[in-house]
Amino acid sequence: MQEEVTDKITDVVKDDIWGAIKDFLNWGFSFGKEDNQIEITVGLLLLIALSFFIASLLLKLMRRLFTRKMGETDKLKFISVFKFIKYVTYIVVVFAVLSFAGVNITPFLAASAALLVGVGLALQDLFQDVIGGIFIIVDKSLLVGDIIEVDSKVGRVIDIKLRTTRAITRDDKIIIIPNHKFITDSIFNYTQNRKTTREKVSVGVAYGSDTRKVEKLLLLSVDQQKGVLKSPKPFVLFEDFGDSALMFGVYFFITDSFIDPSIKSEIRFRIDSLFRENNITIPFPQRDVHLFTNQIKEDPSSNMSVD
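-> structure tokens emitted (307 positions)
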């Protein structure tokens, strides 16, 4: 008796419950003919959703493992990179699940290839920016806070994203830089190795000036300047014999090259004041102009009258 009840329960589970589940999973629609026929079922959609969920969990785990020893700022940079990887992974998962479910994905791949060629040609600059952003973030060739010079404009980096980098200039203007510039153009990074940079102020003095006295005054001009480091010590170079002046350069080190124009301005004010106090002349360009005139001698015979 118990065996009959068990058999009936098994038949009900197999035929009714499981059969209903299979019918529900196989419910869907199809389009196309023969080899190109594509069937979309509830089971296929659930499988894709489950694959997305598992792929998302694996990507989150990879991101945590990869960024576990990074600071908060570096972790934020990698969010854009992993978003890009996530989208690519989702596309691969969709095609893999469709192929596993028996769907002929050749038409999809053929159409995608043609589409991607067209999109790639139209958006090649965008792809270059994305690839450049990935390189910047991965190899840390550029960091938030770095001072860079792009197209003769100096700025401090405030944000690095997957496609663009933003920097604020000395005029408090935001410059948006496409990331491909960092892999195709030469970019000056003032603070890549360290924050300390060497700066220079040039000046010319009149011929006949006491050059050693000029050297002492130039060193004095930077000695008490705020922002100039005591070590390494500032120094002066006698750079050249110019057309109208003896050319000198005073070199000094600072820790914030972003504000170096204001420091240089203060040093120039001080140089001018010290030179005036010590009778050192800053000459202006001079040129000697020689005028040559040709005098035409009159021929006496030309004044003779003919009778």
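The mean pLDDT is 77.
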